[in-house]
Amino acid sequence: MEIFGVSLQGLAGQLLIGLINGSFYAVLSLGLAVIFGQLNIINFAHGALYMMGAFLAWIGLTHFGINYWAALLLVPLLIGLLGIVIERALLRWLYQLDHLYGLLLTFGLALIIEGLFRYYFGISGESYEAPEALRGGVDLGFMFLPLYRGWVVVASLVVCLATWFIIERTKLGAYLRAGTENPKLVQALGINVPLMITLTYGFGVALAGFAGVLAAPILQVNPLMGSNLIIVVFAVVVIGGMGSILGSIVTGLGLGLVEALTRVVYPEASAVVIFVIMVIVLLVRPAGLFGREN
């Protein structure tokens, strides 16, 4: 049986690739949405911190014997701590200024981080093996499912949904949203708003570190992996709606699948289809699919 001139097995394989790419889009755009929604900062350093997460996992394994599972917990923590330092030292001075200043500062940080890793590690890339428990795959009849790729999709969905639940359905999330809209009132209630903002930025970039560890066994770990992805992720955030948690998750996964289907039907357009969709969405609904109209 063929669909669009491609066998069912080939189509399923392409959709799996799209779902994996969509999982990375969702986790990374979620971190961007959390940071923009709560801090009003366009964090262009997100791709560099994602790359740093992959490199820290590789360095931990090759030089210190830290296995994948430990890296999956430790690396996001380290990236989150770095984010806290960045927010306290640099970003907190920009909250009352135009978005452009935050974008330029984080863009400069991204160039510095990427430049340092290119200087020390080159651009050839390093390989990172998947954990032994997730090697191999399962024959589903219509396709062969690699275990690690299935794990990436499941882990990404769990993290995305847990983040959405915390921000949208818990008291902590209510404080975060209120702190964004009326920080003076929230601070008058005894809540440390500056600390809450700092931890929010740390959590947002920790998601980038988490995505980097997930990506390490699939992609070559190299200093350019973040810059190659961040423009697409920004497009995902714009389509979903700047600051929209649910929009980032749904749009990230959906656009990964759309990109995969385009690769089957019209491969030449697969590299630009997301940006074409972004232009159409901005023309029809400038706030994004899930964003709030002013």
TrEMBL record:
It is found in: Cell membrane. It comes from Candidatus Methylophosphatis roskildensis. InterPro entries: ABC_transp_permease, BCAA_transport_permease. This is Branched-chain amino acid ABC transporter permease. The chain crosses the membrane at residues 12-36, 48-66, 72-91, 100-121, 148-167, 188-218, 230-258, 265-284. GO terms for molecular function: transmembrane transporter activity. The keyword Iron does not apply. GO terms for biological process: amino acid transport. Keywords: Amino-acid transport, Cell membrane, Membrane, Transmembrane, Transmembrane helix, Transport. Its main location: membrane. It comes from the Bacteria. The lineage of its organism: Bacteria, Pseudomonadati, Pseudomonadota, Betaproteobacteria, Nitrosomonadales. Belongs to the binding-protein-dependent transport system permease family. LivHM subfamily. One of its GO terms (cellular component) is plasma membrane. It is a multi-pass membrane protein.
